[in-house]
């Protein structure tokens, strides 16, 4: 990114996709390779290659195919889903602080999953994913209705409503987990946000559901791009506002529901990635969506690897690491004069 002087005004030259996109794809492939190769048990390149291409049931095969591969797939799916959902939420609400965790979406999905596990005794992943979708949808609707509909867009009201609903649902989830001692352990680990603990089938299912959500995002991307210019401008340009909003809402539910069901309520990915990319690529919503889908997994996979290295041989949940990374960004945004002055993503 370079700075140019044009007629006394300083403008930024954004990096071209032809240069940046291949680099980002290579970084994602490198993050995937590191996620599969690095772990408590050291494996050789031959072990990894044999496990991926011609498994024979050795211990190395089991580690790769039953532990590291599902973990990596969940990281790819959750990273893409949360980062893209963050861009959509910031665009729809014109709130630079919006992200699935801050607006209560993840908390809604978590509460619904807790009900499924503790109250209804449902442990099968495919079933709990539906509960996550329902919880994410209900929480999103509550925040939208209480925080803004009929009263005009309000950054403060939306944010406070999301924080309040998220806090209530998180407290209810914690209370449910304490009712059943057997469910407490699994909910405690899942609630902290972790990529491990899923089977290969569950991880592949998560990838497929997130892929469906991303296809929906591709379809509504032009409408989201117009909405980023402001509702009045979007209408003047012929944008179908209602369809874009409904599609965005459905995409958020699908993406956040799948990510939360698989990895737990991981916070700040949807805040950190879009803002970092916006500083590089500017306000183009379509570019933000594309690069968020690629950079989100890079962040989450590398954070997970770092979690495994800090206190090896033990590991800390990746949600703890993303909170450490995202909290300073949130504080900086809250204190930023730009947030107060613009009230919308740049």
Write structural notes for this entry:
This protein has helices at 17-37, 45-53, 59-93, 105-119, 125-147, 155-179, 181-191, 200-227, 231-236, 241-263, 269-281, 285-310, 318-335, 337-342, and strands spanning 2-6, 9-13. Helix 1 (17-37) packs across helix 3 (59-93) and helix 11 (269-281) crosses helix 12. It has 346 residues and is mainly alpha-helical.
Which SSEs are present, and which pair or pack?
Blueprint: E1 2-6, E2 9-13, H1 17-37, H2 45-53, H3 59-93, H4 105-119, H5 125-147, H6 155-179, H7 181-191, H8 200-227, H9 231-236, H10 241-263, H11 269-281, H12 285-310, H13 318-335, H14 337-342
Helix pairs in contact: 1-3, 1-12, 2-3, 3-8, 3-10, 3-11, 3-12, 4-5, 4-6, 4-10, 5-6, 5-10, 6-7, 8-10, 8-12, 11-12
What are the main properties of this structure?
transmembrane helix, Iron ABC transporter permease, mainly alpha, 2 strands
Strand content: under 5%
Number of helices: 14
How would a textbook summarize the main sheet? 2 strands, antiparallel
Compute the gyration radius: what is it?
Answer: 20 Å
Name the helix and strand elements from N-terminus to C-terminus, one letter apiece.
Answer: EEHHHHHHHHHHHHHH
Q: Total strand count, please?
A: 2
Shape category: globular
* SSE-based structural type: mainly alpha
Can you describe this structure in just a few lines?
The chain has 346 residues and is mainly α. The chain has helices at residues 17-37, 45-53, 59-93, 105-119, 125-147, 155-179, 181-191, 200-227, 231-236, 241-263, 269-281, 285-310, 318-335, 337-342; strands at residues 2-6, 9-13. A two-stranded antiparallel sheet has the order 1-2.
């Amino acid at each position: 990114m370079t700075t140019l002087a044009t007629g006394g005004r300083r403008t930024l030259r954004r990096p071209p996709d032809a240069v940046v996109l291949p680099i980002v794809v290579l970084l994602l492939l490198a993050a995937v390779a590191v996620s599969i190769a690095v772990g408590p048990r050291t494996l050789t390149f031959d072990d990894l290659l044999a496990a991926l291409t011609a498994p024979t049931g050795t211990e190395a095969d089991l580690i790769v195919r039953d532990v590291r591969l599902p973990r990596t797939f969940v990281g790819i799916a959750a990273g893409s889903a949360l980062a893209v959902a963050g861009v959509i939420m910031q665009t729809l609400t014109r709130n630079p602080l919006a992200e699935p965790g801050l607006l209560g979406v993840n908390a809604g999905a978590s509460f619904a999953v807790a009900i499924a596990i503790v109250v209804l005794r449902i442990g099968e992943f495919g079933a709990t994913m539906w509960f996550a979708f329902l919880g994410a949808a209900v929480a999103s609707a509550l925040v939208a209705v209480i925080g803004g509909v009929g009263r005009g867009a309000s950054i403060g009201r939306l944010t406070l409503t999301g924080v309040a609903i998220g806090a209530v649902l998180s407290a209810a989830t914690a209370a449910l987990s304490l009712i059943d001692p057997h469910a407490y352990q699994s909910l405690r680990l899942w609630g902290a946000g972790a990529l491990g603990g899923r089977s290969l089938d569950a991880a592949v299912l998560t990838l497929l559901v997130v892929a469906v959500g991303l296809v929906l995002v591709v379809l509504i991307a032009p409408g989201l791009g117009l909405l980023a210019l402001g509702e009045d401008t979007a209408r003047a340009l012929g944008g179908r506002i209602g369809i874009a909003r409904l599609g965005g809402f459905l995409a958020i539910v699908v993406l956040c529901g799948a990510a939360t069901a698989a990895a737990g309520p991981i916070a700040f990915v949807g805040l950190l990635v879009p803002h970092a990319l916006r500083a590089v690529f500017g306000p183009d919503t379509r570019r933000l969506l594309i690069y968020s889908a690629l950079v989100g997994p890079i962040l989450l996979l590398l954070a997970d690897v770092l979690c495994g290295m800090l206190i090896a041989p033990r590991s800390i949940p990746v949600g703890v690491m993303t909170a450490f990374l995202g909290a300073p960004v949130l504080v900086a945004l809250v204190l930023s004069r730009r947030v107060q002055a613009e009230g919308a993503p740049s």
